[in-house]
Amino acid sequence: MPDLILILSQSLLPFLENAAFLQVSTFFLLWIAAWLPLAIPTAFAVKWYPSKPITVQQKLPLLASLYLIAPLILGAISEPKRWSFVNYGLLWEAELLISLGIGLILGLLGLLVLFGSQIAMNWMQWELQQVDSLRATFPLALGLGLGVGLIEELIFRGFLLNQFQQLFSGWVAAAIASLIFALLHLVWEGRG
Length: 192
What we know:
Largest sheet: none
Structural class: mainly alpha
């Protein structure tokens, strides 16, 4: 058994000492370290404790605080290299806005088809209170969805993919970044 540990450690050591791996590790450690001072009081404020299932109303403030600090941490660790978010794929060009518009239209059409089908099959009924509630929460939900999506693209398909492409081929780097994305989303599912 000690020989196996020695062989594994010798084969993994060059990978663990790699600058890209250290950059990714530093990002995630700083992100969590910066978020915890925000998350703990937020968890108390929304009356959530790790032993209890988390509700959507409790999850949203925690996620908002997590995602708001991510670009700051990414910018801080990218500064020594003089990189910008453009290096991670965030180009404010007409093509991005066109793609965003197409995505929003397709998403809204998908929701209309989904809700329309449910209403047509009598699986759901609209009440005036629900329409008023939807009208009030839609801008907030849209903004939160766009913000979270933008930050996730920046981190997982920008920063992580860029770092892992220094170590692996494009397909392997994309698979690792996608795996990390999926595993981190499992954290939020828990028992809730």
